[in-house]
Specification:
By secondary structure, the protein is an alpha+beta fold. It has eleven helices and 14 strands. About 30% of the residues lie in helices and about 25% in strands. The protein binds ligand LNFHSRP7 and manganese (II) ion (2 copies). One manganese (II) ion binds next to β3.
């Protein structure tokens, strides 16, 4: 799977990022999302594969989306039998967020990207469009930190595992009312907090890279983004845990369901009988082979954003594979017309 589609999925996220980046700073959140979705769909449908979207974020806020259950790839077409050897092709599941950080794109802020994760059928947790409490930390702290422990305890553990004082730790938290207590506790413990308005996938994955100056992600974001983050962290060996949040009172924004009880019932219908289960990266992305790809739309901690120049654009992507155990940063020049010159950097 890695060899067959590894290179193609880079182009999928690149195309989505380029499309969305054209709307950077235009204040049009939905449009930035829509063009990314369309570009992603169009490029995915040119890949020789039998894909199925299992996470197509967007349901929560009526944003444009690649639909859950949507079939993608050449070999899902009606005439697939004539073009593809269906007996040999493995079926793959895909989790997408074509524009992760739509607000960031709309307002020209850092940290947005086009992102997806792939595994064989059943290899990714089909997360409901709920919220998720998340804990991400570097590989050195994997299985030492635990989302059941207090933030203070986890900070002491990360500090020991990394051999740096708590004062030298930076924790990313989404800037939301629901995190007031969490933010206070992290500050009281002595660590520093980086508040982000959006984009917790990038923050989670950054924990796995020393030099990112991000040592943990704590707090509640969206569950689909949790699965995508987990896919990358599973490949990178970083720590990731997630627990679904079904009580609107905890989230405060009240966007999920009408009540705690109706949400538990909804989860049950989806086959989730233990709504309080704590999932680790290996459970959220359990497939034998997991692939992750992201391309920066606006500049971020891990990747630069799309840079347009006369007749072309330059992008930076990150492709991670559990099979080849690689994390590749891919720097690409895209030639739309005949550019007068190609930008070296
Ligand atoms: O910031 C985010 C928005 O993602 P998108 O809609 O694809 O632009 C995500 O990284 C967050 O995980 C999440 O969606 C968010 O925390 C949930 O939204 P909110 O209710 O504003 O906290
Ligand atoms: Mn998102
Ligand atoms: Mn999105």
């Amino acid at each position: 799977m890695d060899n067959v589609i590894g290179l193609e999925i880079i182009e999928v996220v690149e195309q989505a990022a380029i499309a969305s980046a054209r709307l950077m700073g235009k204040g049009e959140k939905d449009e930035a999302d829509r063009v990314a979705v369309e570009a992603m769909r169009e490029r995915m449908n040119k890949i020789h594969m039998r894909g199925r979207i299992v996470i197509g974020e967007g349901e929560r806020d009526d944003a444009p989306m690649l639909y859950i259950g949507e079939q993608v790839g050449i070999c899902t077409r009606e005439d697939a039998k004539e073009i593809c050897n269906l007996d040999e092709l493995i079926e793959i599941d895909i989790a997408v967020d074509p524009c992760e950080g739509t607000n960031l794109v709309a307002y020209g802020q850092n940290g947005s990207m086009a992102v997806l994760a792939i595994s064989e059928k059943g290899g990714l947790f089909a997360a409901p469009d709920f919220y998720m409490n998340k804990l991400a930390a570097p590989a050195a702290a994997k299985n030492h930190v635990d989302i059941r422990k207090t933030p203070t305890q986890n900070l002491h553990i990360i500090s020991d595992c990394l051999g740096r004082s708590i004062e030298d730790l930076v924790v990313v938290v989404m800037d939301r009312d629901r995190h007031k207590g969490l933010i206070n506790e992290i500050r009281q413990a002595g660590a520093r907090v980086r508040l982000i308005s959006d984009g917790d996938v990038s923050a989670a994955i950054s924990c796995a890279f020393s030099g990112s100056n991000i040592h943990a992600l704590m707090g509640i974001g969206a569950a689909p983004e949790g699965v995508i983050s987990a896919a990358a962290m599973r490949c990178l060996g970083g720590h990731f845990q997630g627990q679904l949040i079904y009580d609107p009172a905890v989230v405060k924004t009240g966007l999920i369901g009408e009540s705690k009880e109706s949400n538990i019932a909804r989860l049950k219908e989806m086959g989730i009988t233990d709504p309080d289960k704590i999932y680790n990266a290996e459970e959220l992305a359990s497939g034998e082979t997991v692939l992750f790809a992201a391309c920066g739309i606006t500049p971020g901690t891990l990747m630069d954003g799309v840079r347009f120049f006369g007749g072309g654009a330059r992008t930076e992507s990150l492709v991670i594979s559990s099979q080849s155990k690689t994390a590749r940063f891919v720097d690409t020049i895209h030639m739309f017309d005949q550019p007068k010159s190609l930008q070296l950097n």
